[in-house]
Amino acid sequence: MYLYVARPDYPNDEAKEPFADVPDLLQVAFGRPTFVMHLELHETRKLARVSVLHVLDALTTKGYFMQLPPEGLINPNATAPEGLRGA
Known about the structure:
Pfam families: YcgL. Residues 1-78 form the YcgL domain. It is built from 2 helices and 2 strands; from the N terminus they run E-H-H-E. The protein is α+β, with helices and mostly antiparallel strands. It has one domain: NE1680-like fold, CATH 3.10.510. The chain has a two-stranded antiparallel ribbon. The longest helix is centred in the middle third of the chain and has 10 residues, at 52-61.
């Protein structure tokens, strides 16, 4: 699962909790979050699977954008760490 979080104070936001805007039920559903990288988004940036305008709209209205991996990308019968790299 990929979760983009709106962080308007970047790079001056290290003291803030990056996942504070994510609803508690969603945090419980996807487990312990791990920060991976800052990603600068603007209207002309291309993203692989979704329109950047859709992401920017979600960040503005909800404070986060969640993207699930495509169906069948992760083998549910695989032993760790396949599909769990970095977790």
